[in-house]
Design a protein that fits this description.
The complex is a heterodimer of chains A (273) and B (235).
Chain A lengths: L1 H20 L6 H8 L1 E6 L2 E2 L3 E3 L6 E2 L1 H13 L2 E6 L5 H7 L4 E3 L6 H6 L1 E2 L4 E3 L1 E6 L13 E5 L3 H9 L4 E5 L2 H9 L5 E5 H10 L6 E2 L8 E3 L2 E2 L4 H17 L1 H10 L18
Parallel strand pairs in A: 1-5, 1-6, 10-11, 10-12
Antiparallel strand pairs in A: 2-3, 3-4, 7-15, 8-14, 9-12, 9-13
Helix pairs in contact in A: 1-4, 3-9
Chain B lengths: L8 H4 L1 H36 L4 H15 L3 H15 L2 H8 L3 H27 L3 H9 L4 H31 L11 H12 L2 H36 L1
Classes of the chains: A alpha/beta (273), B mainly alpha (235).
């Protein structure tokens, strides 16, 4: 644990130091409009959220489409900067970027440092089960559930279903085989991974991912704590995108039934969440 | 990180200690029942392998070739996943609800090890002068009875050192059962690692336990060898 604390301490030091010495504009929204450019920190190797398209050599993805939609409503162009999970918050605090759109889960700890937009993507740990067998988490109580060794999925499912027997296999294909043979009643991990496994499974039409999750990962766009105007504008834009159906279209484009992920959108962008 | 901070306390008490102990129990059950069953099966196969009835010999030969020449991991997967197609649905359902992971792992370990044990016993039998068998047969013993009373008791004693090797292998090979979700010692050590990131401590503990287990097996077989078999010899 010591290693973890030290890392945390280092990150906190960097973040607080950055906050102390940074000179971001007082009103970012006005500054963006004046510069004519919105600088966004995005992931560049995490399909389909943000990755470099082989043909166009530009960064594309779910996160990027949201940034572009916001910039369009601002009437400015977009500049994308690749960030990592470790660098994105310091970069924002230093004023190198105006907004983070990089698969960032809105957690209480982070919300102390920065401001989050309303949730624009929601995921979490889900299950693959036989079609029509499982309707809620209660149906899995006392059942046998397969997952892969060493993953946080194993720990989450133990906490969520204390009465279930957890069988950890070496990898997910074996867990799926065990499900096919009735050795387990469900396979669990992050929904995006499950969707990927199911997409490749030979008899995938016998299985489904029931619409409930045991961990909640609400992704928010990150902005500086004092950028109230920008946060308000982004939230207004997200809500408008939800209303017009644009947000749902972006979801379908990257995760929908015609993609390898084949996910159904089970969330909506709601004000204040 | 250059320096690793050792923290033995987490695995010496509390939840993680309990996990390792529960893993050890499974390892002990798997090893003990595996040793017993593989010895018995090995004896049968060895006797079949030396039978004067040709088809019986062929069956034993086929069994030996198949089980000795395929990796144990593959055999574990075969008994766990592959048996699904061979068994009736009702039996599958029943097995799936009755700790089939353990049963499949035990079957694989037993069958795999029995092949080696059979060959060890056979070489022990071959080292007994064949006149003994002839004498036993002419004294009216059947083939099986002469094996039972005359040949095998001597052969097994000669075979003890290589048998200990097979028993030790079985005990250590039982760690492969974790690939199909049997929560034995190595599985639990890995579990502790993924919860605490204290892999060194967890696996050191597991290593010490395997070592102790091996020493105990060797000791027990030695005791048997010294006390029981030498008594037989003396009498």
């Amino acid at each position: 644990m010591k290693k973890g604390f030290m890392l945390l301490a280092m990150i906190l030091t960097v973040v607080t130091a950055a906050a102390a010495f940074a000179a971001p504009p007082a009103n970012t929204l006005a500054a963006i409009k004046k510069k004519g450019v919105l600088v966004a920190g995005v992931k560049d190797s995490l399909p389909p959220f943000g990755y470099v398209d082989e043909k166009t050599r530009t960064i594309v993805g779910y996160d990027i489409d949201f940034v572009r939609a916001i910039a369009k409503r601002l009437g400015v162009r977009v500049e994308l900067k690749a960030v990592t999970s470790a660098s994105r918050m310091p970069q924002l605090e230093e004023g190198n970027i105006d907004i983070i759109a990089a698969t960032m889960t809105n957690t209480p700890e982070r919300a102390k440092q920065i401001a989050f937009s309303d949730t624009y993507f929601r995921t979490g740990q889900a299950f693959i089960t036989r079609k029509g067998m499982v309707h809620s988490l209660k149906d899995l109580a006392g059942k046998r559930i397969g997952t892969a060794k060493g993953s946080t999925s194993e720990q989450n499912v133990k906490a969520a279903l204390p009465t279930a027997t957890i069988l950890s296999f070496d990898d997910y294909p074996q867990a799926l085989l065990a499900l096919e043979q009735g050795k387990v009643q469900a396979v669990t991990t992050d929904e995006a991974i499950l969707a990927g496994i199911l997409a490749k499974a030979p008899n995938r039409n016998q299985f489904e991912i029931p619409p409930f999750k045991i961990s909640d990962e609400p992704y928010g766009l990150g902005m500086r704590k004092n950028d109230k105007q920008l946060v308000a504008f982004v939230n207004k834009t997200l809500l408008a995108m939800e209303k017009s159906g644009e947000a749902a279209r972006i979801f379908d484009k990257w995760f929908g039934p015609r993609t390898p992920f084949g996910l159904h959108r089970t969330f909506k962008i709601v004000a204040g969440k | 990180m250059l320096s690793y901070h050792f923290d033995w306390s987490i695995i010496l008490s509390g939840t993680y200690f309990d996990w390792l102990v529960s893993g050890l129990k499974v390892t002990l059950w798997l090893s003990a029942s595996g040793i017993l069953l593989s010895f018995l099966l090995g004896l049968c196969v060895a006797v079949m392998r030396m039978s004067h009835i040709a088809p019986v010999r062929w069956v034993a030969q086929l069994f030996l070739e198949v089980t000795r020449n395929t990796p144990l991991l593959v055999q574990i997967f075969f008994w766990y996943f592959g048996s699904y197609k061979l068994l009736p649905t009702d039996l599958n359902d029943w097995l799936n609800n009755h700790n089939f992971e353990f049963v499949a792992a035990l079957a694989a370990l037993t069958i795999y090890t029995s092949a080696f044990i059979a060959e060890d016993i056979r070489s022990g039998v071959l080292s007994i002068p064949k006149e003994q068998l002839e004498a036993a047969r002419s004294a009216g013993f059947s083939y099986l009875r002469s094996m039972q009373y005359i040949i095998l008791p001597q052969a097994v004693r000669i075979t003890i050192p290589p048998l200990v090797n097979q028993f030790l292998n079985l005990a250590k090979n039982s760690s492969l059962a974790m690939t199909i979700g049997v929560m034995e010692l190595t599985y639990q050590a890995r579990q502790v690692e993924s919860y605490t990131f204290k892999g060194f401590e967890a696996f050191t503990a597991a290593t010490v336990v395997y070592l102790a287990l091996s020493v105990v097996i060797t000791f027990l077989v030695d005791q048997y060898n010294n006390r029981v078999l030498k008594l037989h010899k003396a009498s």
